[in-house]
Amino acid sequence: MNLANGLTLSRIFLIPIYLLFFYSTLEKRIVYAGIVLILSGITDILDGYIARKYDMITKLGTALDPVADKLTTFAVLVSFNSYGLIPPWILIVLGMKELALIVGGGILYYFGGEKVIPANKFGKVATFSFYVAIISVILSLSQMMTNILLYIAITFHLFAFLNYLTIFKTIMRDKDEA
Length: 178
Prior knowledge:
Elements (H helix, E strand, L loop, with lengths): L2 H20 L6 H25 L5 H24 L5 H24 L9 H18 L4 H35 L1
Family: Belongs to the CDP-alcohol phosphatidyltransferase class-I family.
Protein name: CDP-diacylglycerol--glycerol-3-phosphate 3-phosphatidyltransferase
Pathway: Phospholipid metabolism; phosphatidylglycerol biosynthesis; phosphatidylglycerol from CDP-diacylglycerol: step 1/2
């Protein structure tokens, strides 16, 4: 296991810590959970940077990175929705998108020749915009600003989904033609 993969695993281990803070009875629980989330975001940036810069890209890391992203996204969506910090439709839309990507990734891996679609700029922008929107909630920015950031994040997520769908269809079509 290399450093980049270790950082990716640390993001998965930060999820229960985030949830412990979020659901605790501490007075500033949302802020503490937000700090853990920011730490997770920093490790997300670092793991990709280190993997590319020091040629540590592995199949394990390529598969684990989106898993860490999806688990973090689900944890935040469910926790924020459970306390009414985001509307349920955001959980439903982004949750369905993430589930579709998980199912599609499984299909691609098992029936598409063990292929994994690596993270790309569309997914990275979507993830970054999600962090920004969630941090705006944590910082209690104006409702209008938070709503704008949430709509931007959802838009980027839907564009990223369409991009991954196009790649998925191309890989599956090429496999069938081979």
